Amino acid sequence: MRGNKGMFKMRGLIASVVACVLLLPAAGRAADHLSIMTDWSAYGAHGPLFLAQQKGWFKEADLDVEIKDGKGSTTTAQLLGSGAIDVGFIQLAVMAAAIDKGMAITSVSCFVRAGDNGVMVPVDSPIKEPKDLIGKRIAYPLGGGSAAMMEAFFGIAKLSKSDMNLVGVDSSALASTYVSGNVDAAITTVAYLAPMIGDKRPSRALPYSAIGLRVPSFGLAVRKEDITARATMLAKLVPILNKAWVYTVDGHVAEAVDAIVAGRPGEKLDRKVMTEQLEGYLKLLDTPATAGHPMGWQAASDWDDAAKSLASSGMIKTAQPAAVYFTNQFMP
Predict the structure, then answer these.
(1) Do the Cβ atoms of 91 and 217 come closer than 8 Å?
(2) Which pLDDT score, from 0 to 100, does residue 29 have?
(3) Low-confidence stretches of the chain (pLDDT beneath 70)
(4) Of residues 221, 194, 197, the one with CA closest to residue 106
(5) The domain 118-211 is classified under which CATH number: 3.40.190.10, 3.90.1720.10, 3.40.50.720, 3.40.50.150?
(6) Residues near 268 by Cβ (< 8 Å), separated by ≥ 6?
(7) C-alpha–C-alpha distance, residues 171 and 179, integer Å
(8) Per CATH, which fold does 29-114+215-324 belong to?
(9) What pLDDT is recorded for position 18?
(10) Least enclosed by CB within 10 Å: which of 106, 171, 238, 300?
């Protein structure tokens, strides 16, 4: 009997401890840690991400978020697929290419849904259309989404890389290389580069979309297994970042830019450039198919068109069903 009494007491004690743990406020429990890697070092498009962290929205949802700087969307996608990071803020065309190679990742939100890639040329350049790039020196960022999309652009434009003199540079050197005048054009995300070079080498863009290459751009990518395995975490994260983009659109660009500066205090960041970058991306949030839907929501028709474009250009071998590339599961 004494043994049974002791056992009952122990069970009661365990039950009490478990109950106390469950009743602890969120602040008293360990938050869910996750790492988000961006495409590059901090610039305007990252404003809403840093804003959510600065305002404490992650912490309020019991999320311990670490924001890591990337070295190009391609590299970030590779690290995501390997399990080295939890979430990638990347160009989703790069994600589609990674999926084509067998990587089990997908997107859970897309912010820059209208696409943003193109070729920057000086305003007085004789380059008016893709065929005019033949024989020209063209700078492009190594390892970035723009470089991956460049292949698709050339494919649709019926150009071969051998037709041009391509100059690969680190993303941090793209603006200076272009401004130097040593190249005739630059492959880039237009909203990223234009504010950096506008007052040094006035330029205009040849958007990829002008020749029919329309692909959703920046969004959140995760491993497919985490759609189920970390559903609770994603159900918190995705709405927070969607809210951060909506908040930024609603007249809080300056606050988002300040959040970047606060989040990267050791870097020499230009507020004016980042403001213009972010404002440029805010013009690319919707397509006709996504208009009227929540921030981050993706349209199957957009992905069907994108997959066909990427397949016809040779960037991917097979256009798969839209559901392979995204889920709206975590939308409000």
Answers:
(1) yes
(2) 55
(3) 1-30
(4) 221
(5) 3.40.190.10
(6) none
(7) 14
(8) D-Maltodextrin-Binding Protein; domain 2 (3.40.190)
(9) 41
(10) 300
pLDDT score recorded for residue 27? 46
Dig out the tokens for 102 from the structure.
Answer: 């067998």
DSSP assignment string, 228-290 = HHTHHHHHHHHHHHHHHHHHHHTT-HHHHHHHHHHH-TTS---HHHHHHHHHHHHTTS--TTT
What's the predicted TM-score (pTM) here? 0.85
Tokens 């070295």 found at: 71
- Tell which residue, 221, 196, 223, has the closest CA to residue 111: 221
Residue appearing with tokens 């198919």: 289
Among residues 190, 149, 185, the alpha carbon closest in space to that of 167 is found at: 185
Maximum C-alpha span of the chain = 97
Residue range(s) occupied by CATH 3.40.190.10 in the chain: 29-114+215-324, 118-211
How does strand 105-110 pair with strand 185-189?
unpaired
> Tokens representing 162?
């051998």
Taking the alpha carbons at both ends of the chain, their separation in whole angstroms is 56
Q: What is the 3-state secondary structure (H, E, C) of 68-126?
A: ECCCCHHHHHHHHHHCCCCEEEEEHHHHHHHHHCCCCEEEEEECCCCCCEEEEEECCCC
